[in-house]
Write a structure and sequence with these properties.
Shape: flat
Strand order of the largest sheet: 4-3-5-6
Number of strands: 8
Radius of gyration: 32 Å
Distance between the termini: 84 Å
Oligomer: single chain
Largest sheet: 4 strands, mixed
Number of helices: 20
Length: 470
């Protein structure tokens, strides 16, 4: 039996302007500049050339302001100009350099070896199998199988092992190791063989389990060492790199990734001054020939001119949405950043983390009147340059817990206090998590043991047993 009914649904459709604005808000400044460049290339109506100087020649098209547009045919005709650099452009932004590609570096070194094509192909496959730390985490038989099935290369365990040994001679030293023990041994063997280096090699080779578990007295007893000899060997070991894949060398290359802040904060006579100098609201202009085309098309009945005018109208509408979206992006980012500055005012005066209040997206959404999703888009991939460093906006957001006075403190402050507790402990008898709870309590923080464990993991602080030193 069929039933017929009426159902009312409320749906909200986003306008082209809203969609454009949302997309632009998400972009960091470099991508925004690229987006403007793309818009200029794809929309022939927009023109980024300098405004022409006025001439007395009557044949020159007149500049038309937005207010002078004749809308009688519903065809907007206005002068546009795009300029995505403000007058206060600051070229001295910090640059964070990205090291050379790990795989690229190894393949370059492989190219210098005198190998047959077959051996080179096997070695290249092994390089491609290394993880981001530079380790080969797969057993040799699996690599032989993969070479056959995935690369159509017939090999055997002896040949694969031979190529692993070749790769282990590459820089950075330790690359191609199958585990941490082998990685450390490769690095020790590359050093000048002093007494402490040889002792360190013996410890890692023969007593790696005891060393990993910090059973130093057991190693001292079995090897008949003094504490000084053990400390000397340990000093060598702790300087080794446990993850060689994360660092090629200490030199920077031309592949640099710039982080350009959207905001600049200055402290002037004790007052915070916020600016957005990299990107100003663009002054916009329409390409002169399209202004002329529109002027000719108005009132014309010729089909070809009407079609041309319709095309230009579509492009003009797109240009208007784009420019208005840029303005809305600017206003949204500025309002959000001002709300963050107001919320975290004491922190931004001197950068003292203890003044960083607990703050979540909802707090700023309520201050600005924007949706939480909008605040999230603003915060994502945006940076601010302050008088005490460059920070991602995400840095200023954190949950909060109460201290013993019932005041809310940020998790960042708690983590800082926890780090200070660990740094000041006696490394011969490191503090357990229960003892850290007591230490934090002495500093005025109410923190549960499980919270201590969670924060310790987030700060990459090992358990007490693994922090033990001689």
């Amino acid at each position: 039996m069929l039933k017929q009914g009426l159902e009312l649904k409320q749906q909200q459709k986003l306008s082209p302007l809203q969609i454009q604005t949302i997309k632009l808000i998400e972009l960091p400044i470099q991508e925004l500049e690229q987006r403007v460049k793309t818009e200029l290339e794809e929309n022939p109506v927009l023109d980024d050339s300098p405004a022409p100087e006025k001439e007395d020649d009557n044949d020159e098209p007149k500049d038309v302001s937005i207010d002078e547009i004749d809308d009688s045919d519903d065809i907007p005709a206005y002068k546009l100009r795009v300029n995505n650099y403000g007058k206060d452009e600051r070229p001295q932004y910090n640059t964070f350099s990205v090291k050379e590609s790990f795989t690229q570096s190894l393949m370059e070194q492989l190219g210098y070896r005198n190998l047959s094509k077959h051996d080179r192909d096997v070695a290249a496959f092994i390089i491609g199998s290394l993880d981001e730390d530079g380790y080969l985490r797969r057993d040799i038989d699996s690599i032989v199988d993969d070479l056959a099935f995935r690369a159509n290369i017939q090999s055997d365990p002896e040949e694969v092992l031979k190529m692993i040994k070749v790769i282990q001679e590459f820089e950075p030293v330790g690359v191609g190791a199958r585990d941490l023990r082998e990685c450390l041994l490769l690095q020790l063997k590359s050093l000048r063989q002093t007494k402490d280096v040889q002792l360190a090699e013996t410890i890692i080779r023969d007593y790696f389990t005891e060393f990993s578990n910090r059973h130093f007295q057991k190693i001292i007893s079995r090897l008949g060492l003094s504490e000084e000899e053990m400390k000397s060997a340990m000093a060598r070991i702790v300087k080794l790199n446990p993850a060689p894949g994360g660092q090629i060398d200490d030199s920077y290359n031309d592949q640099a990734q710039q982080i350009v802040p959207d905001f600049v904060l200055d402290l002037v006579d004790g007052d915070l001054k916020l600016s957005m100098p990299r990107f100003s609201i663009p002054e916009i202009r329409v390409n002169k020939k399209y202004a002329e085309l529109l002027a000719d098309a108005q009132g014309s009945s010729e089909r070809q001119q009407k079609e041309a005018a319709a095309f230009v109208k579509q492009k003009l509408d797109s240009a208007k949405w784009f420019v208005e979206a840029l303005k809305q992006r600017h206003n949204t980012l500025e309002s959000t950043m001002k709300a963050i500055l107001e919320y975290q005012h004491d922190y931004f005066i001197d950068g003292d983390e203890s003044n960083l209040r607990p703050m979540v997206l909802k707090d700023i959404a309520e201050k600005t009147g924007f949706d939480i999703s909008t605040i999230s888009r603003v915060v994502n991939s945006k940076y601010i340059e302050t008088h005490f460093g460059i920070y991602p906006l995400k840095y200023f957001f954190s949950e909060g817990l109460e201290n013993q006075e019932g005041e809310e403190v940020s998790t960042r402050e708690l983590k800082k206090a926890l780090r200070e507790c660990v740094d000041s402990e006696d490394k011969r008898k490191p503090l357990t998590d229960d003892q850290l709870v007591s230490e934090m309590s002495k500093r005025g923080y109410k923190v549960a043991r499980r919270t201590i464990a969670k924060y310790r993991d987030q700060l990459d602080i090992p358990k007490a047993r693994l922090r033990k030193e001689l």
